[in-house]
Structures are given as structure tokens and as C-alpha cells.
Write a structure and sequence with these properties.
Length: about 200
Amino acid sequence: MRASQLVPALFLMVSAGLLAGCAGAVVGAGATAGVAAAEERGLEGALEDTKIRAAINEAWFRHDVEMFRKVTLTISEGRVLLTGVVPTDANRDDAARLVWQVAGVREVYNEVLVRPAGSALIDDGRDVWIQQELKAKLLFDKQIRNINFTVDVTDGTVYLMGIAQSEGELQRVMAYAREISNVRGVVSYVRMKGAARAAGG
């Protein structure tokens, strides 16, 4: 990527991160670029995913503000994982339908849960604790390139995305997830390094 393209690219990445409601503070565009460049998908891949995220968030926001609030996005190489909780099947289907309309989307994994109004609430605090616990385990394991994995947790189920260096690395990540208290299951949408990517559409 040329230097003339770098500044607007980083601005888009930071802006999309803020739009998506990132929990962590934005340290700076330089740090964002450094992290993205170190990932297997590279800076350009991270930028493309950021553009997709921004377009999806805009589509959801225009369609239904509650959808924007309740459905969570995880994106890796144009592969989009949807999690969260909505009240109806129609809400769940609409979320995926709008994602497929965004340019650059290759695959959509719809793991959104349907819980009608009045149903038992999901323990968000527990899910956040599981997520942070797993991220910490991956961070301190030198046999795992944690930067290539994203973790989402909904109702005790851990969802993994990203790119694994090997089957052994992926199994190590999944083993960490399974040993955490209150984890009900682990679902992997991790791609092996070197494996063919979906064509999209």
C-alpha cells in the first residue's frame, strides 16, 4: 500500500472501530496499522474487513437501530460471523440478508440466537469474563499467534475466527476455551493458513 493511501486507510479503520463500539481505547493509527500488518491477512486484508464492517453497520443502522445494537460482527477475510440475541426469526434472517448485500462478503455464519421478549436473560457479564479469560490464555502462550484469532462469546458458547498456522495450534486454542468454567461449547470458523478461501457471493 502506497504512503498516500495509508492515512485515509487508517482513518477508516479507526472510524469503523469506533462505530462498532469497541470496548478498548484507540491507542493510535500507527499502532492500529502495526497490529493489522502483523496479522496473516495483512494490512490490506484488515482494511477490507474494516470497510465491510462499516458498510454492514450502516445497513443495519438504517434498517433497524435495535439490530445494530443487538447483533455482533466478527469479520476475517470477508467471512462474517453474526452473534448476539434478537427477539424473532425475522430479525435473525434480516441481519444475514443485509450482510450478504455488502460488497466483499464471502461467507456468512449466522449464529444469532432468537429469544422472544420475556425469555430468560443471557448473562452478558459471564460471557465477557469467558472472553477475556480466553484472550489472556492465548496472549501468554508462545505457541499460539494470538493476533490471528478473534473470540466472541454468546450465552456460554465460544466462537472462534481467524487463521491458524496449523491444526495443532487450533486444537490448542480450542482446548483452552473448553477448560474455562461455564463454557457450554466451542465453535470454530478458523481457516487453516494456506487453505483456499471462499470466492464470495
